[in-house]
Design a protein that fits this description.
75% of the residues lie in helices and 0% in strands. The protein contains five helices and no strands. The protein is flat. Keywords: Membrane, Transmembrane, Transmembrane helix.
């Protein structure tokens, strides 16, 4: 009979975590090369889109099960702001004029001020609308 310690060997778990990290890094590196940005921008893109999907999933689940007072409409402004901020580093690097390290300028659609301003405006207008329509 296999004991508990043999079944949950920490060396195997550590090796599995390292293997998953390497596979994840290789996948992100491939995505970064595909879209023409660095690995950090690709990671931010994947994590941001994942957070957006998770927020919308929580909204759908909460609305369907009535377990939390959240609805899809309540989480949609923050999900949309998260989605915009997920693309921010990628658009900044793609909108760069010249090499990124030379910092010769960025087109208006690649500016971080544009992304943060748009995300903040969505949050302010979205939740302001909900505040004004409260009971």
């Amino acid at each position: 009979m296999i004991s508990h310690n043999e079944r949950n060997d920490p060396k195997a778990i550590i090796a599995l975590v390292i293997l998953c990290a390497l596979v994840g890094y290789l996948a992100l590196n491939g995505l970064a090369k595909l879209i023409g940005v660095d690995v950090n921008a690709a990671t931010t893109l994947v994590m941001g889109v994942g957070c957006t999907i998770a927020l919308l999933g929580i909204g759908f689940w909460s609305q369907a099960s009535d377990s939390w007072p959240l609805t899809v409409a309540n989480v949609s402004p923050i999900a949309l702001a998260t989605f915009i901020l997920a693309f921010s580093p990628t658009l900044n690097q793609l909108g760069s004029i010249g090499p990124v390290w030379a910092d010769l300028g960025v087109k208006w659609w690649g500016s971080l001020y544009t992304h943060y301003g748009l995300a903040f405006a969505i949050l302010l207008i979205g939740y302001g609308y909900f505040y004004l329509r409260r009971d």
